[in-house]
Each structure stands twice: as structure tokens, then as C-alpha cells.
Write a structure and sequence with these properties.
With 260 residues, the protein is an alpha/beta fold. It contains twelve helices and ten strands. It has a five-stranded mixed β-sheet, with helices on both faces. A five-stranded mixed β-sheet has the order 7-6-8-5-9.
Length: 260
């Protein structure tokens, strides 16, 4: 099923960056700076690849931390010195803007995610997700829906399918989508709701079996990036956000099963 395309707000972002954009466009932009980036766990593999390309092209270095969006929100509110935030939802960066912890007008959608029901075992998950109705498994892994948007999408899917009451007792929660994926990869859970990007990141022969969850079964997983207040004067932070909107990054985003 095709993913929904959400176009970034180019004009608003450019206006918000103002003088910083002009400086970066000049002939001698600052090079060699570092930017501290909080990244939603589902975006681990693509962001690692994007960060390498960013450093090669710009000379700046992105120092990446991966985790649950909700946990990062709490850390940022408590003074964590992140300068750029790549969330797994849209509402958390918006909230940070409203609270004065992010630079107003710099928020944009860098990717729209795809939820997948996945098993490490080939043939275990069918193309229609009927394995959920059969319930012939002991554990179904999901990310903590209070902290991770992919976990919330998983709960919405089960509710829409009318399966939540029957499967509630089989659910095991990971702190974030990375831990949820590991539950399934290690065999501690027979199957789980993960990000399609995590399945794409595995070697082709080790991808197991998966059902791409139809988009109408859950709210769109719109993932927004934002410049945090701590990165307002950091040239590397601004450069990274601009790089995320370029074709090089967009190609990587598509490669891992997102819509840029």
C-alpha cells in the first residue's frame, strides 16, 4: 500500500532560518562543527547512513543518540543538550515549539513511516496479517504506546481489527521500537509490530516474513524534525536540517521504506 506523502513547509522553514541560511549559502561556510542529534529509534539505520553522507559533504559531524520519542521529550525538557530532534511523530516537536524549547518555524516532516507486522521466521506472517486472528503464538511485541508512536499505531491497528481484547494478554512491550525489534529478532516474541525500515535494514536472506499494515488502520506516522533551542547558533545543526531536505537524504529515506 502506498505511503502518504506529506510535503515539508519549505517557505516557513526558510523564513525561520533567515540569516543562517544566507551564511550557509556563502562561499566559506563554517566547517568542522558538531551537532548533537536525538533520533527516534525507528530511524536508526537510515540516519546512520545519512550522517555519513552529511559529514562527507559538509565537513560537519552529527553525533547521534537513538531512543523513544517520548523519552527524548522528557530529556529535552530536563535540559539535555540536544540541538536537533528527529522525532517519530509530529506532535512532540510541535509541543517543544510551543514550550519555547525548539525554534519556531523550523519544524518539517522528514519522513512518513510504515508499520509492519514482522516475524524472523520465513512464512510465519502471511500477506494479509491473518496470523493475528489465528493467535497461534505466545507473545506479540509492540513498542510502549505511551512513548513510541509506532507502539501507538500498533495498538490502534489491533483496536481497528477488533483483536485488542483477545490479544491483550499476549502483548510484550519494548521501551522503544529498537528493543521491540530485538524481542522478535531474538525469538523472545514470535512476532511484533515494527518499522518497515528495520526489516529493510536486515540482510535480504534474513528478513523473515512481514505484513505491511494498511495505512487506514492507524493514524499516519508523520515524523517531524525540528531545530532545538540549544542548536539555534550552531551552523552544523542548520546544515543538517537542510541536508535532510536534499535529494541525497531523500534517496536514503526512500530506500528504507519511508516516504520523504
Amino acid at each position: 500500500m502506498p505511503l502518504r506523502l506529506l510535503l515539508p513547509r519549505r517557505c516557513a522553514l526558510a523564513a525561520a532560518f533567515g540569516v543562517m541560511l544566507t551564511a550557509l549559502a556563502g562561499p566559506n561556510p563554517a566547517r568542522g562543527a558538531e551537532v548533537s542529534v536525538a533520533v527516534a529509534a525507528n530511524f536508526t539505520a537510515p540516519m546512520q547512513k545519512i550522517a555519513q553522507a552529511f559529514e562527507k559533504e559538509s565537513g560537519h559531524k552529527a553525533v547521534l543518540s537513538f531512543g523513544a520519542t517520548g523519552a527524548f521529550y522528557a530529556q529535552i525538557r530536563n535540559g539535555a543538550p540536544f540541538q536537533v530532534f528527529l522525532a517519530a511523530d509530529a506532535k512532540t516537536p510541535e509541543r517543544l515549539e510551543q514550550e519555547g524549547l525548539a525554534v519556531a518555524g523550523t519544524r518539517f516532516t522528514y519522513a512518513t513511516g510504515q508499520l509492519a507486522l514482522w516475524s524472523a521466521a520465513p512464512g510465519r506472517v502471511d500477506a494479509q496479517g491473518e496470523v493475528l486472528r489465528a493467535a497461534s503464538f505466545e507473545r506479540l511485541a509492540i513498542a510502549n504506546p505511551k512513548l513510541a508512536p509506532y507502539g501507538a499505531a500498533a495498538m490502534q491497528t489491533l483496536d481497528k481489527l477488533g483483536l485488542l481484547p483477545a490479544l491483550q494478554g499476549k502483548l510484550v512491550q519494548g521501551e522503544n521500537i529498537a528493543q521491540t525489534f530485538q524481542f522478535v529478532a531474538s525469538g523472545n516474541a514470535a512476532l511484533g509490530f515494527v518499522a518497515l525500515s528495520q526489516v529493510r535494514a536486515r540482510e535480504p536472506g534474513a528478513r523473515g516474513s512481514a505484513w505491511l499494515v494498511p495505512a487506514e488502520l492507524h493514524e499516519p506516522i508523520r515524523q517531524d524534525a525540528v531545530l532545538l533551542a540549544a542548536g539555534r547558533e550552531n551552523a552544523a545543526a542548520t546544515a543538517l536540517l537542510l541536508f535532510l531536505r536534499g535529494e541525497s537524504a531523500r534517496a536514503v529515506i526512500r530506500e528504507f521504506g519511508y516516504e520523504p
